[in-house]
Write a structure and sequence with these properties.
The chain is of the alpha/beta class. It is built from 13 helices and 11 strands. It has a 7-stranded mixed β-sheet with strand order 7-6-5-8-9-11-10, with helices on both faces. A two-stranded antiparallel ribbon has the order 1-2. The structure holds glutamine.
Protein backbone atom coordinates (compact mmCIF):
# COMPACT_ATOMS: atom_id res chain seq x y z
CA UNK A 1 0.00 0.00 0.00
CA UNK A 2 1.41 3.40 -0.95
CA UNK A 3 1.16 6.24 1.52
CA UNK A 4 -0.79 9.40 0.88
CA UNK A 5 0.71 12.81 0.34
CA UNK A 6 -0.98 14.09 3.52
CA UNK A 7 0.56 11.31 5.56
CA UNK A 8 4.05 12.03 4.23
CA UNK A 9 3.59 15.77 4.74
CA UNK A 10 2.69 15.21 8.40
CA UNK A 11 5.60 12.80 8.88
CA UNK A 12 8.04 15.31 7.34
CA UNK A 13 6.72 18.19 9.42
CA UNK A 14 7.00 16.15 12.61
CA UNK A 15 10.54 15.06 11.77
CA UNK A 16 11.62 18.67 11.13
CA UNK A 17 9.87 19.90 14.26
CA UNK A 18 11.52 17.20 16.37
CA UNK A 19 14.88 18.34 14.96
CA UNK A 20 14.16 21.80 16.37
CA UNK A 21 13.52 23.67 13.11
CA UNK A 22 11.30 26.70 13.59
CA UNK A 23 9.57 26.72 10.22
CA UNK A 24 8.95 22.97 10.13
CA UNK A 25 5.47 23.07 8.56
CA UNK A 26 6.37 25.64 5.92
CA UNK A 27 9.63 23.87 5.08
CA UNK A 28 7.88 20.51 4.71
CA UNK A 29 5.33 22.00 2.31
CA UNK A 30 7.96 23.80 0.21
CA UNK A 31 10.24 20.78 0.07
CA UNK A 32 7.55 18.35 -0.97
CA UNK A 33 5.81 20.63 -3.45
CA UNK A 34 9.21 21.51 -4.98
CA UNK A 35 10.31 17.87 -5.22
CA UNK A 36 7.03 16.78 -6.82
CA UNK A 37 6.73 19.82 -9.09
CA UNK A 38 3.41 20.89 -7.52
CA UNK A 39 2.21 24.32 -6.46
CA UNK A 40 1.38 24.73 -2.75
CA UNK A 41 -2.31 24.73 -3.70
CA UNK A 42 -1.79 21.58 -5.77
CA UNK A 43 -0.11 19.91 -2.83
CA UNK A 44 -3.10 20.61 -0.59
CA UNK A 45 -5.61 19.57 -3.24
CA UNK A 46 -3.91 16.23 -3.80
CA UNK A 47 -3.39 15.36 -0.14
CA UNK A 48 -5.41 12.15 -0.42
CA UNK A 49 -3.45 10.80 -3.40
CA UNK A 50 -0.87 8.03 -3.09
CA UNK A 51 2.87 8.75 -3.34
CA UNK A 52 5.08 6.24 -5.16
CA UNK A 53 7.74 4.52 -3.07
CA UNK A 54 10.43 6.25 -5.15
CA UNK A 55 8.96 9.70 -4.46
CA UNK A 56 8.53 8.87 -0.78
CA UNK A 57 12.22 7.91 -0.61
CA UNK A 58 13.24 11.16 -2.34
CA UNK A 59 11.14 13.16 0.10
CA UNK A 60 12.58 11.41 3.16
CA UNK A 61 16.13 11.95 1.88
CA UNK A 62 15.42 15.66 1.36
CA UNK A 63 13.95 15.97 4.85
CA UNK A 64 17.14 14.49 6.33
CA UNK A 65 19.19 17.08 4.43
CA UNK A 66 17.01 19.80 5.95
CA UNK A 67 17.52 18.23 9.39
CA UNK A 68 21.27 18.72 8.74
CA UNK A 69 20.35 22.43 8.26
CA UNK A 70 20.74 22.56 4.48
CA UNK A 71 18.37 25.31 3.28
CA UNK A 72 15.21 24.24 1.46
CA UNK A 73 16.09 25.92 -1.83
CA UNK A 74 19.60 24.47 -1.88
CA UNK A 75 18.08 21.02 -1.50
CA UNK A 76 15.73 21.79 -4.39
CA UNK A 77 18.65 23.31 -6.33
CA UNK A 78 16.80 26.44 -7.39
CA UNK A 79 15.10 29.51 -6.03
CA UNK A 80 12.84 32.32 -7.21
CA UNK A 81 14.19 35.85 -7.24
CA UNK A 82 12.36 38.87 -8.63
CA UNK A 83 9.96 36.62 -10.55
CA UNK A 84 12.66 34.50 -12.25
CA UNK A 85 13.91 31.06 -11.26
CA UNK A 86 17.62 30.61 -10.58
CA UNK A 87 19.67 27.43 -10.45
CA UNK A 88 21.97 27.37 -7.41
CA UNK A 89 25.40 25.76 -7.24
CA UNK A 90 28.13 25.16 -4.70
CA UNK A 91 29.91 28.48 -5.22
CA UNK A 92 26.85 30.71 -5.56
CA UNK A 93 25.10 32.60 -2.78
CA UNK A 94 21.40 31.80 -2.53
CA UNK A 95 19.60 34.94 -3.77
CA UNK A 96 17.80 36.66 -0.86
CA UNK A 97 14.50 38.55 -0.96
CA UNK A 98 16.31 41.57 0.55
CA UNK A 99 18.45 41.78 -2.58
CA UNK A 100 15.29 42.39 -4.61
CA UNK A 101 15.40 45.87 -3.04
CA UNK A 102 18.64 46.54 -4.91
CA UNK A 103 17.03 45.47 -8.19
CA UNK A 104 13.96 47.63 -7.53
CA UNK A 105 16.12 50.68 -6.75
CA UNK A 106 18.10 50.26 -9.97
CA UNK A 107 15.29 49.59 -12.43
CA UNK A 108 14.35 53.31 -12.77
CA UNK A 109 18.00 54.17 -13.49
CA UNK A 110 18.34 51.39 -16.08
CA UNK A 111 15.11 52.58 -17.73
CA UNK A 112 16.17 56.24 -17.67
CA UNK A 113 19.52 55.50 -19.29
CA UNK A 114 18.06 53.07 -21.83
CA UNK A 115 15.44 55.68 -22.79
CA UNK A 116 17.98 58.47 -23.24
CA UNK A 117 20.78 56.49 -24.92
CA UNK A 118 18.83 53.70 -26.62
CA UNK A 119 20.65 51.07 -24.57
CA UNK A 120 22.07 50.56 -21.11
CA UNK A 121 25.20 48.56 -20.35
CA UNK A 122 25.52 47.11 -16.90
CA UNK A 123 28.14 45.16 -15.00
CA UNK A 124 27.37 42.96 -11.99
CA UNK A 125 30.54 42.36 -9.97
CA UNK A 126 30.52 39.00 -8.17
CA UNK A 127 27.42 37.96 -10.06
CA UNK A 128 27.06 34.49 -8.47
CA UNK A 129 23.84 32.99 -9.85
CA UNK A 130 23.48 36.10 -12.04
CA UNK A 131 20.32 36.99 -10.14
CA UNK A 132 20.76 40.77 -9.92
CA UNK A 133 21.99 41.29 -13.47
CA UNK A 134 19.43 38.94 -15.03
CA UNK A 135 16.53 40.43 -13.07
CA UNK A 136 17.52 43.87 -14.41
CA UNK A 137 17.81 42.54 -17.97
CA UNK A 138 14.38 40.92 -17.66
CA UNK A 139 12.91 44.24 -16.51
CA UNK A 140 14.48 46.43 -19.22
CA UNK A 141 14.65 45.03 -22.74
CA UNK A 142 17.22 47.55 -23.99
CA UNK A 143 19.74 46.62 -21.32
CA UNK A 144 22.75 44.34 -21.77
CA UNK A 145 24.76 42.92 -18.91
CA UNK A 146 28.17 41.56 -18.03
CA UNK A 147 28.40 39.33 -14.98
CA UNK A 148 31.83 38.88 -13.44
CA UNK A 149 32.94 36.48 -10.76
CA UNK A 150 36.13 35.00 -9.41
CA UNK A 151 34.48 31.56 -9.44
CA UNK A 152 34.18 29.56 -12.68
CA UNK A 153 31.42 27.52 -11.04
CA UNK A 154 29.44 30.71 -10.46
CA UNK A 155 30.00 31.94 -14.02
CA UNK A 156 28.76 28.63 -15.45
CA UNK A 157 25.70 28.83 -13.21
CA UNK A 158 25.02 32.44 -14.22
CA UNK A 159 25.21 31.46 -17.92
CA UNK A 160 22.82 28.58 -17.33
CA UNK A 161 20.45 30.96 -15.55
CA UNK A 162 20.64 33.44 -18.43
CA UNK A 163 19.67 30.63 -20.77
CA UNK A 164 16.86 29.20 -18.66
CA UNK A 165 15.32 32.67 -18.34
CA UNK A 166 15.64 33.49 -22.06
CA UNK A 167 18.24 36.23 -21.47
CA UNK A 168 21.39 34.60 -22.89
CA UNK A 169 21.61 36.95 -25.89
CA UNK A 170 21.96 39.99 -23.64
CA UNK A 171 24.19 38.46 -20.97
CA UNK A 172 27.92 37.86 -20.99
CA UNK A 173 30.16 36.45 -18.30
CA UNK A 174 33.78 37.09 -17.55
CA UNK A 175 36.16 35.84 -14.86
CA UNK A 176 37.52 38.73 -12.82
CA UNK A 177 38.52 39.63 -9.30
CA UNK A 178 36.31 42.75 -8.99
CA UNK A 179 37.56 45.13 -11.74
CA UNK A 180 40.92 43.42 -12.25
CA UNK A 181 40.15 41.86 -15.66
CA UNK A 182 37.43 44.32 -16.70
CA UNK A 183 37.80 46.82 -19.52
CA UNK A 184 35.59 49.68 -20.64
CA UNK A 185 32.86 51.80 -19.11
CA UNK A 186 29.38 50.92 -17.96
CA UNK A 187 26.17 52.83 -17.34
CA UNK A 188 25.39 50.82 -14.23
CA UNK A 189 27.83 49.14 -11.87
CA UNK A 190 26.09 46.83 -9.42
CA UNK A 191 27.29 44.45 -6.75
CA UNK A 192 26.16 42.48 -3.74
CA UNK A 193 29.69 41.72 -2.55
CA UNK A 194 30.74 39.74 0.53
CA UNK A 195 30.28 42.13 3.45
CA UNK A 196 30.22 40.08 6.65
CA UNK A 197 33.16 40.68 8.99
CA UNK A 198 35.45 37.62 9.08
CA UNK A 199 34.98 37.09 12.83
CA UNK A 200 31.18 37.14 12.44
CA UNK A 201 31.04 34.53 9.65
CA UNK A 202 31.50 31.72 12.20
CA UNK A 203 28.49 33.02 14.15
CA UNK A 204 26.03 32.95 11.24
CA UNK A 205 23.17 30.46 11.25
CA UNK A 206 24.23 26.97 10.11
CA UNK A 207 22.13 27.35 6.94
CA UNK A 208 24.33 30.26 5.85
CA UNK A 209 27.63 29.26 7.44
CA UNK A 210 27.73 25.72 6.05
CA UNK A 211 25.85 26.05 2.78
CA UNK A 212 26.47 29.52 1.34
CA UNK A 213 29.99 29.87 -0.06
CA UNK A 214 32.35 31.63 2.36
CA UNK A 215 33.83 33.64 -0.54
CA UNK A 216 30.42 35.23 -1.09
CA UNK A 217 30.04 36.20 2.59
CA UNK A 218 33.43 37.09 4.08
CA UNK A 219 34.27 40.75 3.56
CA UNK A 220 37.52 40.72 5.53
CA UNK A 221 38.34 42.08 8.99
CA UNK A 222 35.99 45.06 8.84
CA UNK A 223 33.68 43.60 6.16
CA UNK A 224 34.62 46.37 3.74
CA UNK A 225 37.38 44.80 1.61
CA UNK A 226 35.22 44.38 -1.49
CA UNK A 227 33.81 47.92 -1.30
CA UNK A 228 37.35 49.28 -1.07
CA UNK A 229 38.42 47.32 -4.16
CA UNK A 230 35.33 48.42 -6.10
CA UNK A 231 35.50 52.10 -5.03
CA UNK A 232 39.15 52.38 -6.02
CA UNK A 233 38.55 51.57 -9.70
CA UNK A 234 34.89 52.46 -10.24
CA UNK A 235 35.76 55.92 -11.61
CA UNK A 236 37.57 54.35 -14.58
CA UNK A 237 34.59 52.14 -15.42
CA UNK A 238 31.52 54.35 -14.91
CA UNK A 239 29.96 56.43 -17.69
CA UNK A 240 29.43 60.10 -16.74
CA UNK A 241 25.67 59.75 -16.11
CA UNK A 242 25.95 56.26 -14.69
CA UNK A 243 25.18 54.98 -11.21
CA UNK A 244 26.66 52.46 -8.83
CA UNK A 245 24.21 50.28 -6.88
CA UNK A 246 25.43 48.31 -3.88
CA UNK A 247 23.97 45.99 -1.31
CA UNK A 248 25.47 46.65 2.13
CA UNK A 249 25.40 45.18 5.63
CA UNK A 250 22.88 46.68 8.05
CA UNK A 251 25.51 48.83 9.84
CA UNK A 252 27.70 49.82 6.88
CA UNK A 253 25.92 52.82 5.37
CA UNK A 254 28.25 55.49 6.76
CA UNK A 255 31.45 53.56 6.15
CA UNK A 256 30.60 52.56 2.57
CA UNK A 257 29.34 56.06 1.74
CA UNK A 258 32.62 57.50 3.04
CA UNK A 259 34.68 55.08 0.92
CA UNK A 260 32.88 56.07 -2.28
CA UNK A 261 32.79 59.79 -1.44
CA UNK A 262 36.58 59.72 -1.06
CA UNK A 263 36.79 58.38 -4.62
CA UNK A 264 34.64 61.17 -6.08
CA UNK A 265 31.12 59.74 -5.92
CA UNK A 266 28.09 61.09 -4.12
CA UNK A 267 25.33 59.14 -2.41
CA UNK A 268 22.12 59.64 -4.42
CA UNK A 269 19.77 57.28 -2.56
CA UNK A 270 19.68 54.75 0.21
CA UNK A 271 17.01 52.14 0.88
CA UNK A 272 16.06 49.77 3.63
CA UNK A 273 15.27 46.07 3.29
CA UNK A 274 12.07 44.30 4.35
CA UNK A 275 13.38 44.15 7.91
CA UNK A 276 13.90 47.93 8.09
CA UNK A 277 17.72 47.74 7.85
CA UNK A 278 19.84 49.92 5.57
CA UNK A 279 20.52 47.59 2.65
CA UNK A 280 21.04 49.52 -0.60
CA UNK A 281 23.16 52.53 -1.59
CA UNK A 282 23.08 54.23 -4.99
CA UNK A 283 25.98 56.50 -5.97
CA UNK A 284 26.55 58.84 -8.90
CA UNK A 285 29.53 60.88 -10.03
CA UNK A 286 30.04 63.87 -7.78
CA UNK A 287 29.55 66.58 -10.44
CA UNK A 288 31.50 69.29 -8.62
CA UNK A 289 34.37 66.97 -7.90
CA UNK A 290 34.53 65.57 -11.44
CA UNK A 291 34.56 69.13 -12.88
CA UNK A 292 37.71 69.76 -10.85
CA UNK A 293 39.52 66.81 -12.35
N1 LIG B 1 22.86 39.03 3.36
C1 LIG B 1 23.69 37.88 3.41
C2 LIG B 1 23.57 37.23 4.76
O1 LIG B 1 23.70 37.86 5.77
C3 LIG B 1 25.13 38.21 3.13
C4 LIG B 1 25.35 38.55 1.73
C5 LIG B 1 26.65 39.19 1.48
O2 LIG B 1 27.62 39.12 2.26
N2 LIG B 1 26.68 39.83 0.41
O3 LIG B 1 23.30 36.08 4.84
Amino acid sequence: MSETLDRLLAESRDRLKAAGLDGAAVDARHLISGLLGLSLAGLMARGGEPVSPADAARIRAAVERRVAREPVYRILGEREFHGLTFTLSKETLEPRPDTETLVDCLIPHVRRIAASKGSCRLIDLGTGTGAICLALLAAVLDARGLGTDISEDALATARENAKRNGLAERFQSHRSDWFEAVEGRFDIIVSNPPYIRSNVVAELEPEVRYYDPAAALDGGNDGLDAYRAIALHAGRHLEPDGVIGLEIGFDQKQAVAALFETQGFCLLESSKDFGGNDRVLIFGQDVERSNDR
